[in-house]
Write a structure and sequence with these properties.
The chain is about 45% helix and about 15% strand. The protein has about 400 residues and is an alpha/beta fold. β3 (about 95-100), α4 and β4 (about 125-130) form a beta-alpha-beta unit.
Amino acid sequence: MRLEADQLGADQAVRQSSGLSAVVDRPDRRLGLRARLRAFVARPSFRQSLVRAGFSLARQRVQAARIDLSQRFAKGPRIRSCRVGNVPLDRARSVAIFIHYAPVAAVSRMVMEQVQGYRDRGFAVVFVSMAPSIPSAAVTELEGRCAAIVERRNYGLDFGAWHDLLPAVLTQAPEANELLLVNDSLCGPFRSLEPAFTAMRTAPEGLYGLTENLAPAPHLQSYFLLATGRATIEDLATFFAAHRVTANKRRTIREGEVRLSGWMRGRGHPVAAWCGYEAVEAAALRQPAARRRVRTLYPHLFAGIAPDDAAAMRAALRRRPLNSTHLFWRELVEEMGFPFVKTDLLLRNPLGIADDLDWRPLLEGNREAVSVIEEHLALLGGPRRAAARPAGTAPAGRTMAA
């Protein structure tokens, strides 16, 4: 009872000092097993076929088990190389571990600019690439922006890389009071990151992220995690040290991303999101385009509800929380000032969103920024324009956790 009271007090302190939303359990918003299965089967690639969905899940598990077995007998360490950059790590107070993936030996201009953005905000960046290799010109450019450039075998997703790198990084940066775990699964920035960093740095020491997901349990989405304070960093390192590295993406999400938030709260740390789910949902459903998008994907939820009745739609969604970075992607940027759009959405559109996915108007005529993102998407998904890709298609690309 005392721990619960302490957590409640910490949650209130976080909100009052920074406006962040605590990631807490919402029993009335839990997505039941039947609803999760229905959502899984409803993906465009399965065409509402339980057989296709079951076969896909079994195939993923078999493939992951084969990779895990081969990795157990693989010769050589998972870290293939490590180069020291020009940014000192031993005196760094703020450290970022940036995970990079590309299907070819390349680092896009967008990724370089994201790395520089974190450097400009005071972070000594450890760049970890799980691409086939890094071109020498890119290595030279990264050396000027980073504390270290690491090449690692593409195994275990982001959580596997953080598991492997955290002990060495924290040993070399004993004074670090901020630890940012971030990956390149985000296109942008479309808006400034400064408001988010200001809020997180104003809050009491804890674990913070940009967005939360409520399914299957409330948790910070792991593409961006900022731990502040030595105690928070040390407990975060303890969690990753115990993490089981696996190629099974669903297991990694369940035992890594989803479990992490509750585990850190259990250790007494505030856990909060810059864009809390309810705030995003309310802001999005005030927009006609978002209401149309949700009604098109989940028509059975809104029988008898008028198209302009946002309050009734929110009530219908009480037991059906959505992935806001996909379903409310445009409203996140336009209404909440969110800096990014998920790359996976633009490349694969996994939920089969039928409305316009053109992200270019969000950049308000900034042709250079548009060009940078188009080049990045082409690098991951081939020469075709990602916004014109038919819903449900799946090019080769990023294989990391969200």
